[in-house]
Design brief:
heterodimer; A: 20 helices; 76% helix; 1% strand; B: mainly alpha; elongated
């Protein structure tokens, strides 16, 4: 009886959507990896070695990365696809972003491993949340439907809220978790209200359908659509920490456990920008770009200037990096603002190189923070060049890369962004971006000066121990930063190929 | 005869959303701020349902289910963080939770 009813219902809606699991494999591997890790650890109790969760996490991320490469080839053969009733888009843009997220999971797990041992906080929960957050990010990157995008964003955000509050002994960690949570929930509500309005105006939450609807129809009552666009932009601006929606970022980055700050700066930003590009550049780009581009322009200019200038006056290195990440968000917003394929590739290249640079920087900060994760003042870096020359050299390279020095990833990413701005006719915006880069260079030099030229020998606060896992992470970050700067061609090529496309669902 | 059209529901939802947003900004008790977030999310639900009826499309109603689940997950996490803070400080006032400034 019930089966018959169910069949009738299914027949009336056209059957269940077919799910091609292999095409969403990266998300599935990451999510399943997280859930299985929790199960395995709770079943085996304390019989597993301490390094097990980290190794598991890295294996899951590498496995997901392998499927990304396979799917990349498949997309080259079969073209872009839209799957699961058009809810998920499989194109090289989403694959590039998913690959970037996997890289940040690998480095995040390595940083966590060293950090948790030092802080006596070992446990699988951190890694489970890391994997789940990444699964949310990958869902977001591939979302072809506003609701899927929202779900991905929430999976990502909720996991990161917990992660930033996980250092139970540090009050500032709890505080940063609470602040992030309240700001994040506020932003999500705005984003969701925007989605509801766009749904009301266009009659669908599917990005491809929205795009075709807007192309075929002229909306007479534009208010709903414009309100929806503005609210969604506010939601995204909160998530990527663009000025004036950035107030939470410095506090949260400062309070959160340092590896989590690294993951936040790299992965959350990457996923949020991927979602932003899918919604604004792809779905609303052809029809509503004249409406949203001025708003993004304002966000970009403010983020660039406020991020660079405020970073200069900080004495806490984590806060400094937080403000500099706001400035970097400004750069990526410049690329989004150009609303072209060139801008999208520039944003992708920027996100990948920023992942390496910021993960490496926060890796060094995590080590120098010493036990208790409390030594983050600029004065704690005095004489680091003498006691830990290798670490200081690595940090110097990361900071120079963030400043945009040639032969590092930072230079080319800034170059591509400014080129995309000038190419779409915004020379003034390109000049502002360059100006912001110059201002920001001062702040990176301040840290370098503190490391090499300040302090007398022997006045260091405490010795700095570099755990093996963290040095591997810093090594990967260093290799990424330098390789992208010296031989960028493969990645540039991939980023150029990684154009996104909204494929309408088959009916 | 006087009928309630979808517009009325939309206006009501906008009002509830605004109450939630303003409440979140002006209230200082974390639990009240939580309730404001819930108000905002439920206002969005009402908007979705109203549009769903107006457009005669089921998509909006299914969206509500997803939002409900997300809201529940968010509350669990948020309350967990609050409990962890309350163990250390016997207060749910955000003005007391301000180690980091600048």
């Amino acid at each position: 009886m019930t089966a018959a009813v169910l069949q009738n219902v299914l027949a009336s809606v056209g059957g269940l959507p077919s799910i091609e699991f292999s095409s969403v494999a990266p998300s599935i591997i990451l999510a399943l990896g997280g859930v299985l890790l929790l199960t395995v650890v709770s079943v085996t109790k304390d019989k597993l070695p301490v390094w097990f969760p980290a190794v598991w996490t890295i294996s899951a991320a590498v496995a997901a990365l392998c499927t990304v490469f396979r799917l990349w080839i498949r997309v080259g053969k079969w073209g872009n696809l839209s799957l699961i009733s058009g809810a998920v888009g499989l194109d090289r843009f989403s694959l590039f972003v998913i690959g970037t997220l996997c890289v940040s999971v690998v480095m995040g797990a390595l940083l966590l491993e060293g950090y948790l041992r030092r802080e006596d906080l070992e446990g699988p929960e951190w890694y489970v949340l890391l994997l789940l957050a990444a699964a949310g990010g990958t869902t977001m990157a591939a979302a072809n439907d506003l609701i899927v995008l929202f779900i991905g964003l929430e999976i990502l955000s909720i996991a990161v809220y917990i992660l930033s509050a996980m250092h139970r002994r540090r009050m500032s960690s709890l505080e940063s978790g609470l602040k992030y949570f309240i700001h994040g929930a506020f932003a999500s509500a705005f984003l969701l209200y925007g989605i509801a309005m766009v749904y009301g105006a266009t009659g669908s939450t599917n990005l491809a359908r929205i795009s075709t609807f807007l192309a075929d129809n002229v909306i007479t009552q534009n208010g709903l659509m414009l309100g929806g666009i503005a609210l969604m932009l506010v939601g995204f601006a909160f998530k990527v920490a663009a000025v004036p929606f950035h107030q939470w970022a410095p506090d949260v980055y400062q309070g959160a456990p340092t590896p989590v700050s690294a993951f936040m700066a790299a992965a959350v930003k990457t996923a949020a920008f991927a979602g932003m590009i899918r919604v604004f550049v792809l779905a609303l780009g052809p029809t509503y770009r004249d409406e949203w581009r001025p708003m993004v322009l304002a966000l970009a200019v403010l983020s660039l200037l406020v991020g660079s200038v405020m970073a200069l006056v900080q004495t806490n290195v984590k806060r400094m990096l937080a403000y500099s990440s706001i400035g970097h968000a400004g750069f990526i917003l410049v690329a989004v603002h150009s609303s072209t394929a060139m801008g999208t590739s520039a944003a992708l290249f920027y996100l990948l190189s920023y992942t390496f640079m910021v993960m490496g920087s926060f890796g060094v900060v995590a080590v120098v923070g010493r036990k208790g994760d409390g030594h983050h003042q600029l004065s704690d870096y005095r004489g680091l060049g003498r006691i830990r020359p290798g670490l200081a050299l690595a940090f110097t390279i990361f900071l120079l890369a963030q400043a945009g020095v040639p032969l590092t990833a930072g230079f080319l990413s800034k170059f591509y962004v400014i080129r995309s701005a000038i190419d779409s006719g915004d020379t003034a915006l390109g000049v502002v971006a360059m100006l912001a880069a110059v201002i920001a260079a001062f702040l990176y030099l301040r840290v370098i000066v503190a490391m090499y030229f300040e302090g007398e020998p022997g006045d260091e606060v405490a010795p700095v121990k570099v755990p093996a896992a963290v040095s591997v992470a810093i090594g990967i970050a260093l290799a990424g930063t330098l390789l992208l700067g010296i031989v960028p061609d493969p990645v540039t090529h991939a980023a150029n190929e990684a154009t996104a496309e909204l494929v309408a669902p088959r009916r | 005869m006087f009928t309630l059209t979808e517009t009325w529901y939309l206006v009501l939802a906008a009002l509830i959303f605004s109450i939630g947003a303003v409440g979140l900004l002006v209230r200082r008790n974390v639990l009240v701020m939580f309730m404001c977030v819930e108000l905002m999310l439920n206002a969005v639900n009402l908007t979705f349902v109203s549009f769903s009826t107006a457009l005669d499309d089921l998509g909006g109603q299914t969206a509500v289910f997803f939002v409900l689940v997300v809201a529940a997950a968010e509350v669990v996490v948020g309350l967990g963080i609050i409990v962890a803070i309350m163990r250390r400080r016997q207060s749910a006032d955000v003005d007391d939770i301000s180690l980091m400034r600048g």
